[in-house]
Every structure is written in structure tokens, then in C-alpha cells.
Amino acid sequence: MRFLPALTALSLTTLGFVAASPPAFAAAAVKEPTATGYGGAVATVDADATAIGLDVLRRGGNAVDAAVATAAALGVTEPFSAGIGGGGFFVYFDARTGRVSTIDGRETAPASATDRYFIDPADGLAYDFTEARVSGLSAGTPGTLATWEEALDRWGTRSLASSLQPAARLADRGFTVDATFRQQVADNAAAFGQFTSSRELYLPGGAPPAVGSVQRNPDLADTYRLIARKGTGVFYRGAVAGDIVDTIQHPPVAADPWSTWAYPIRPGVLTRADLAGYRLRFPAPTRSDYRGLTVYGMSAPSSGGVAVGEALNIIEAGLPTSATTTDKLHHYLEATALAFADRNRYVGAYTEPSVLQKLISDPWAGQRACLIDRTKALVKPVAPGDLNGSGCATTATGRPVEEGQSTTNLTVADRWGNVVEYTFTIEATGGNTMVVPGRGFVLNNELTDFNFAPTQGDAPDPNLPGPGKRPRSSMSPTIVLKDGKPFLALGSPGGATIITTVTQLLLNRLDLGMTLPEAMAAPRASQRNSAGIQAEAAFRLRYGPALTPLGHTFGADAPELGAATAIEFTRGGRLIASSEPVRRGGGAAGVVHPAR
Ligand code: GLU
Predict the structure, then answer these.
(1) What is the model's pTM?
(2) Is 407 one of the catalytic residues?
(3) How far is the CA of 498 from the centre of ligand 1 (A)?
(4) Among candidates 387, 317, 396, 401, which has minimal Cα distance to 359?
(5) Could you tell me the pLDDT band of residue 537, with boundaries at 50, 70 and 90?
(6) CB within 8 A of 100, min separation 6: which ones?
(7) Which atom of ligand 1 is nearest to the CA of 492?
(8) How large a percentage of the chain has pLDDT more than 90?
């Protein structure tokens, strides 16, 4: 009964006992990172959300029904990572047709945006990241709610109205604050303190909520119920749309801010017409082969599918058959550096499909892998490949591009073999830090995923802002098929490190002989084409002694990389649902019928 702890947490919360429980007990009891069994599975970062998804599966809902109910619950318990104020990418394997489809629910820039959107007209310089983030300018039109509705319409069996109910109840009743949640508020306290709505919800009494206390959000419960009654029109064209635009154009700055803020809080320019004009996209998934498996990922405006696919192809093309663990990690680090050089140069919302196709082709991988020397690391940053060249041809080096770390990921499978891999976000942890007054959700700062100024020297930058444009993402919801059937579904948050985390998880599982839970727990490293590898200390300590003699260098340790979830499909319908044992406070995996 491995899923029981999650249910226990839920019922304790329901009964109102959790606030009185010792916090250590509440935090320790609720999460089970691995679950094995049959009949469907859910893996998320949060016990309440996983319990809600499992409940939908038990009552006969399919993977899409469960994914939407789970996502709505994550909007309650992970409000600084995801929610209806943001966007994301939904990847779906349909067991009946054997097809993988995607929904691009990425946020969009206002119609009035130009490539100088993040340039201060006063001095012609790009805004600082924090100045841009905590402003109305950073919020794009959210795509999350439209994604949920469309996924249910296309593949689900339940209405959006019913799918929002468990999360509305959760928001009313509240959930237990854990150390991760408290820390996320603490990290954002200075910004939240600027806004009446944000501080009222998240800084009760002027301080972050205590670990073990119950966090309720009646405004969000009401918003979910309003949407359930009136449909998504109320969000995109009705009363909620009005409140979103008002928040963006007139940020609810407190007359008596609780802390100093170094920047002016700039209003944004998003309009009701921008919200009313929001449209989902349905790009074909990226597709590449690795070790006889077929890897499906998210296409532009995410760079995730292309970059993961390219990195895997390079590893496959370059790795000698006699490879040692050090060879494998060396190739992993070189492959992701090369893939990032190409992604930064070529991938943005409007990249031609033929270019994306080329970047995940085997000939391209051969052209890139031929730069790798088994005995010596490339000097970073490496140059992008030349799309018109051959051999090892490269072009002028671009500047590495960095992005923040937040977001959440969920993986769901049902008894019929349908699979959902869904990564969604409000960008930075805490988004643009503005709660929409009276509505209980935080707005995204996704537009800061655009490059504020050109990064590629004389070459065009594919990720500058533009009217109605979607910023490039790194989100990499991935579904791997073996002989046309699901083998593995996985994804992670973590900004640009998502691409390396997903690639490394696949390397761990497919090349380094690890089980899925071992692959999940293993220490991570991220080489995104800069001089120093960003790694967890455990990776540097374990593998650094073998990798540094090859010329790899490590930058400052990362406290943790990613917060992944995954499901592996094994023989006889047996599922291994897996989430983080430790990162982000540990995740929650559950199955409908646990294996004995
Ligand atoms: N905004 C990021 C992206 O789309 C994701 C945020 C994160 O995971 O930190 O790539």
C-alpha cells in the first residue's frame, strides 16, 4: 500500500488535524518517492496532488482526466511553480491510436511587443532580470487553463468543471506548509511585500507561514468554481480577464511596502484583446531514435525536444562501444554543450520546421560528434554548428544564455495505457510575484525567457521578443516508446537545466545500468556550454576526479538540479512511478493497485 501515506496526508488535512501535528511528522509521513504496481500511476512533487490524481484514476477517469485534476491541485499546493496564471507543454500518448500529440500552452507576448520590449527607453539598456521580472511587463497571456480544457475535450472523459472541483476543495480546506513552501515564500518575501494581494495571501502577519501550519486559498477556490460554472471565457474574456489586465497595467503596489525594493515597479501593456486572442498550438512532437527506442518531445517554442534529441543523438554517434562510465559522462557533458550552442543560435518560436528537423537528424549528430575527443574536453563555449556546412563545420561562437529555475512536472498513466507528460510553469519561483487581487493566483513572468538583447553576435537571435510571440522554453516533457508502446515518460522543472536533467536521466537509465529510482536519485550535472559545469556537490565529488583530468571544470555547486517525475512501463503492465527522493523536499508517486 505504498500510496497510503499520500491518502493519509489528505485525510488528515481534511479533518483539520495537520496543524496540530508535529511538523516533522507531517512532512515525513506524506511522501513516497517510488510506487510499483498496476492499473495506473501518478507522479508529482506533491502528496495532495498525487492523491487527487489517483482518486480520479480509481473512479474510472483516464490519464488526461487525472492529469488535469492533478495539475489543478498543483496550482493550489505549488502556487509559486505553476497554476492558471502561467503556461506549459502537454504531451500525450494515446493508447488506441498509438500516436503522440502535444499541446503548446505557452504564454504569449502582447500584440504591442517589439524586439526592444525589455530595453529601458530612458537609457537604451536592457532591464536587470529582477527589474523585468517583478513588473507587469514580464507576464504573458497565460495558456494553462486553455490547455486543460482542450486536453479534456480532445482526449478526456470528464468536464473541466468536474476536474476543478477536488482542487477547489483543497484550496478551501488548505494544505500543510512544508519547509520547501516556507522557503519559497521567504525567498520572495521582499517582492511579495510590495503588493497588497501577495502579502495578504502569503505573508500573514508579516512573515512567511510556519512549517506545519495550514495554508488556505479561498479566493483560488472561488476562481476555480467560477470557471467551473461559467467556462474558460470568464478567464480569457470576462471578469477574471479584467482583473488580470488590471493587475498587469496597474500593479497592486502597497502604499506602505514592507521592505525596500531596488527598482521601479513597471506596469505592463498586456490588454484584454491579448487575452481574448489567446490560441493554443498543436505542433507535431519532436522525434528521434536512441538505442532502438523512439523519443518524443516538445517542439518549438520549447527547445526541449530538439535539444534533448540532439544531445542523445550526439552521445549515440560519438560513444565508443567499449565506453566506461567516465566516457559516458564525458560524452554526455560534451553533447549537451554542443546541443546548447545550436539551440541558442537556431531555436526560437519561429524556427523553420526544417531547421528543427535538421538539428535532430543523425547526419547533424555525426557532424557535431566528430568534434568530441575521447581524451580531452572541448573548450567552452563551443561554437554552433554550420547549417550549411559539412564535416565538423562550425560558425561564430554565440554567448551562452541563462534562465531561472522553477516550474513543476507531472506524469500520469492509466489502466488503458494512455500517458500524459506535462510540464507547466509560471517561470521563476513566485512568477512575477503579483497575486491577482481577489483571484488567488500568481501571474507568470514567462516573457523574461526572451533574450532581452541579441546574444548571437552578428547572427540573428531567434529568441528576441516580438508581437504575440512565445518565449523559447527549455521544458522537455518526454515520452519514450519501445516498439510503439510506452517505455518511459519523464520530465522536470529547472529552467535550462531541464534539458540536461532529462538527458541525464535517460543516460542513467539506458546507458549506466541504473533502475529508474536509482536514475532519479543519482547526483546531477548540467553542462550548458559554459566554462564551468553546474553540478550537485555529490556529482562533483564522485565523478570530478575522473572528469577534471580530461579538462572538464566545475563552477559553483548547485544545491539541487531539477525535481523530476517519471513512470516506467515494464512487463505485464507493471508500472514504476518515480519522483524525487530528496530534491524539492521529495516528491510523491502512487499507483492504483500497488504490487505486493
Ligand atoms: N521558464 C522556463 C522554461 O520555459 C521554465 C522555468 C523553470 O523550470 O525554471 O524553460
Answers:
(1) 0.94
(2) yes
(3) 8
(4) 387
(5) very high
(6) 91, 92, 93, 94, 285, 287, 296, 479, 481
(7) 8
(8) 89
Nearest CA to ligand 1 atom 5: 495
C-alpha cell at 277: 486572442
Whole-number mean pLDDT of the chain? 93
How big is the CA angle at 21 (ends 18 and 25), to the nearest 5 degrees?
105
- Going by C-alpha positions, the residue among 72, 241, 71 that lies closest to residue 168 is 72
Residue-level length of the chain: 596
pLDDT digits (tens, 9 = 90+) for 95-118: 999 999 999 999 999 999 999 999
Share of residues in the chain with pLDDT > 70 (%) = 94
Among 129, 407, 472, which residue has the most ligand 1 atoms within 8 Å of its CB, making it the best to mutate?
407
CA of residue 88 to ligand 1 center, whole Å: 9
Nearest CA to ligand 1 atom 7: 495
Cα–chain center distance at 72: 15
In whole angstroms, what is the distance from residue 429 CA to residue 152 CA? Answer: 27
Euclidean distance between CA atoms 557 and 559, whole angstroms: 6
Residues 6+ positions from 165 with CB-CB distance below 8 Å: 224, 228
Quick check: 361 pLDDT over 90? yes
What is the reported pLDDT for 257?
Answer: 79
- Give 244's Cβ-side CA count (13 Å radius): 28
Question: Is residue 107 in contact with ligand 1, taking CB distance under 6 Å?
Answer: no
Whether residue 535 is predicted with pLDDT greater than 90 in this model: the reply is yes
Q: Is 78 in the pocket of ligand 1 (CB under 6 A)?
A: no
Mutating to test ligand 1, I would choose from 442, 475, 502, 565 the residue with most ligand atoms within 8 A of its C-beta, which is 475
Between the CA of 495 and the centroid of ligand 1 the distance, in Å, is 4
Distance of CA 353 to the CA centre of its chain: 23
Q: How confident is the model over 508-527, as a mean pLDDT?
A: 98
Cα of 22 to ligand 1 centre, how many Å?
34
Of 176, 232, 394, 407, the active-site residue reads: 407
Atom index in ligand 1 nearest the CA of residue 429 equals 9
pLDDT class of 402 with cuts at 50, 70, 90: low
pLDDT at 8: 31
DSSP-assigned states of every residue in 123-152: TS-BPPHHHHHSSSTTPPBP-HHHHHHHHH
Q: Which of 354, 361, 372 is nearest to 289 (CA)?
A: 361
Determine the average pLDDT of the residues in 60-69. Answer: 98
- The domain spans of the chain are 76-280+407-449
Q: What is the pLDDT of residue 279?
A: 98
For 363, the 3-state DSSP assignment is helix
CA of residue 76 to ligand 1 center, whole Å? 19
Q: Is the CB of 475 under 6 A from ligand 1?
A: yes
Rounded Cα distance, 236 and 249, in Å: 16
